[in-house]
Amino acid sequence: MAEDMGFFDFGTIFFLVAAVVIFFQLRNVLGRRTGSERPPFDPYTAGRTREDAQKPENVVSLPRKRAPGEPASDAYAAIDAFAKPDTDLNKGLRTIKDNDPAFDPKTFVDGAKMAYEMIVMAYADGDRKTLKNLLSREVYDGFVAAIGDREAKSEKIQSSFVGIDKADIVSAEMKGSEAHITLRIVSELISATRDKAGAVIDGDPETVAEVKDVWTFARDTRSRDPNWKLVATEEED
Question: What region holds the Tim44-like domain (predicted)?
Answer without folding.
Answer: 89-235
